[in-house]
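Troubleshooting log. The previous structure file for this entry was overwritten by mistake, so regenerating from the original sequence record. Sequence copied from the archived sheet and checked twice against the printout by T.R.
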Amino acid sequence: MTDSSNAHADSAPSNVGVVIASIAVLLLLASLDQTIVSTALPTIVADLGGVDHLSWVVTSYLLTSTIVAPIYGKLGDLYGRRIVVIVAIFLFLLGSALAGLATNMAFLIGARALQGLGGGGLFVLALSIIGDVIQPKDRGKVQGVFAGVFSLSSIAGPLLGGWFVDNLSWHWIFYVNLPLGIAAMVGFLVAFKAHPAHHDHRIDYAGAVTLMVSLASVVLFTSLGGNTFAWDSPVILTMIASAVLFGGAFIFIERGASEPVLPLSLFKMNVFSVTSMIGFIAGVAMFGAVTFLPLYLQISKGVSPTVSGLMLLPLMAGIMLSSTISGQFMTRTGKYKILPNVGTLILATGLFSLSTLQPDTNDWVIWGFMVLVGLGMGTIFPVVTTAVQNAVPRQIMGAATAAGIMFRQIGGSLGVALFGAMFSANLREQFAGIPGASGDMAAHINGAMLASLPPQVHELVTNGVVTALHPIFQLAGACALAGFVVSLFLEEIELKNRKLPKEAEPAAA
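Regenerated output below.
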């Protein structure tokens, strides 16, 4: 089917600063909504009921935001990021409004899914728009800012969620998106210009559907496996089979598509294939392992979830520092290869250091290890995105950017699932010899539960939890080292400023 729409035109914004600020706010809102509900979930369940569906408040957003990301990337390439950003913002804000109005759990889950349909687009489009308005040598600095925004949201989300619940109501977790989102949208529309032109495009519907089903299957089996369903249950095995079968069908379809959602030719490019592998491996290492840091802090230090979130600030500081330095390095030298080389080694050092943690480890030592992990994280992600946007043809930059995010998300999902299964198995093994500690405790371990245990059992359980975490950080460190080896094969294409093309951006329809 051929669809006619506005195609490539001038994207030179009248105010680059306003564009970047607007997109940064939208990215912050979209990433905040991945974590902001976590501390509010008990209050939401007390108000709406439906405790059996509690996890879906988080999973529904993750699911829809992941499966639509590649589609947004391609649509932005075909019809222009201006109109696609408008659609993404509209869906995100509509979902936010409906979530705030929810009167039952099913309605809230549906609204969260709608939020994700918009939020997934904002992730991809924010990074793609940098390529539209910023010269290659300068993109690293902005990517660094966005990396800081993303890391800020991971810590600020739970804290803000708790504050809204304590001082207003859980509804404001979603309502707060509306004024900020509208203001950012207005700023973006005023500053990001486009001029109309016309081209015909053939939408790759079959490729889009098979990719979405495959990604949905990956997200569902990694989110639900080992928790809602056993790993060897028919439901999980069916999801795994679906991910493989539809993934294979997607590859077959893309080979013959005239305008594929994810052009397979990208994988023949060294920069794209290598950075995708780095992103995937780093996603496994970082998102999988960092998930367990708050648990260590809550169990070994006896702090609340909110305080454990605050104690992750050194991690965020490391990310912001290294992403800023990396951006400045790329701007001044036009080079980038050494950064993921160094970043993966620093990340591996930080993760292996975390595997030495004990219940009585000094806070300053813990924070030092976190800074190392953050320094490694902040050096990797902004660089790989900048390298890809510099290497691929402009007409598929959005698809390439989206693919990089997709591989990182899949890596993170698989990492969380893998390390979660490892932790449960390790914990059951540790608890086997502790009197008064049952296997069921492994699935519900938290600070409040530990506080109710007799002192001797409390100490044994705490030691068992910390010991069970060591193999996770060790495996994560090994993944980071694998990322280092892969990064050695990265081709370096000098970042050079060039004239932004007149046809850079299709106009809004």
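DSSP finds 19 helices and two strands in the chain. Archived copy saved in two places this time.
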